[in-house]
Amino acid sequence: MSSVRTRFAPSPTGFLHVGGVRTAFYNYLFAQHHGGTFILRLEDTDRERFVPEGVGQIVEALDWLGLEPNEGFWISQGQHKNIEYIQSERQKTGLYQKVAEQLVEQGLAYYSYVTPERYQEYKQDAAHQPFVYRKSMEAEFHDGKSPGPEGEYPIRLDVEAIRTEFHHLADNGVAWHDEIRGDFVDNLSLIEDFILIKSDGFPTYNFANVVDDHEMQISHVIRGDEFISSTSKHVLLYELFGWQAPKFVHLPPINGLDGKKLSKRTGDTNTLEYRDKGYLPEALLNFLVLLGWNDGSTQEVFSQQELIDKFSLDRLNTSPAVFDPKRLDWMNGSYIRELSIDALYKKVADFWPDEAQAADDAYKKQVLGLVQERLKYFSELPELTRFFFVDLPVDDSLISEHKQLKKLSSGELRDLLEKAKASLEASSFTTDDLTQKLNDLLEQTGQKPAVLFSLIRIATTQAPASPALADSLAALGKDRSLSRIETQLKHLG
Questions:
Q1: Is 198 a catalytic residue?
Q2: Which is catalytic among the residues 145, 264, 346, 347?
Q3: pLDDT in tens, 426-442
């Protein structure tokens, strides 16, 4: 399958979300697996909904994810490249108009008298019954004018003429095959005279994507299942032009934990928000590839080369996948834990709390090593590490809401802290010595770790959670640790 050519063809009517990223990644993996070509094409013919910033965001997101196309539109060093892969640029060449005119000349398409606005009015009036627009309705619905200059009125397909010309379609319907879902057949009588070229001169999605897929020799169309209902129109156009249709693959939908289609509330946000929150691109891709595909094993964490080697269409599912944010956090955390401290330190450079600016690299790396195990994404870094760089105010709720400590009186808390302070004053503040001192304190006080260690942790960090206590104390140092315990003692009265 050396001739495999896939494409990711988003419409910049908004920003690229994670559902689109999964589609792009599947196309990328399939092309890479077969030594083929992955193409990025922007389908921006819907000018009313076009979002100019969407173009840059799509490319920026794919660039962050490392999904640079072999061919297609891209932005390199601030310069736009290969704009011929943008449909609005291709429209300027007259390509789509020329191809549509071929069907008009063959009597298989026509300039419609009815403007899109009038069409919508008629469609709404017929909302109570099936409405399939036909050329025979033109006289009834037109606005009394003759067709104007080229481009003023839309070009529609003439399905009745097609039924007369192509008897096998009229008798057997429009048949097509999905590589993972099987065979589909759609009755030609249910396909209306859909628009090929709009009144603004731009092609519709249904027309332009067929022309471009043919021109770009796309071998496999891998896309979301929302396009299943449109595929019969595309296959019909391939039949009319006598073109070889690509193989179709419609991916399973992605649902949120609520069982409904993924939304912004349940995780389908602007892809760059995951970057800005501090997710690793390789972790996000690993997570997304498993939403609809598996290699038949229990393995969950894959290198990209493993995914390229293993990816195949026959391992795709048809049932909806579930986007679980906690699963993504686990996945990202597992990738973070595999990084060396030096590599991680470079990646979190923009995520430190403001209070860490004056700290030196060695101390920040020490702190980073302590929190690496519990870091799920980089934007958690300030909350997990701020107490290492600044004395936080005493937070009474940390004790009053603690399951064990809230049972103790102020006097009991003071007594435990006084003993802890005395023990720590005698420590050399190495991790090993601190561990020994803390264990000795457990025997001396007869308390459980959940009580004694929690109290010391709260007094020295004023944080709801922290790394291992001995490690945290060693990093904070003797003077700062004892000073904070003294502050907590004063607060207890």
A1: no
A2: 264
A3: 999 999 999 999 999 99
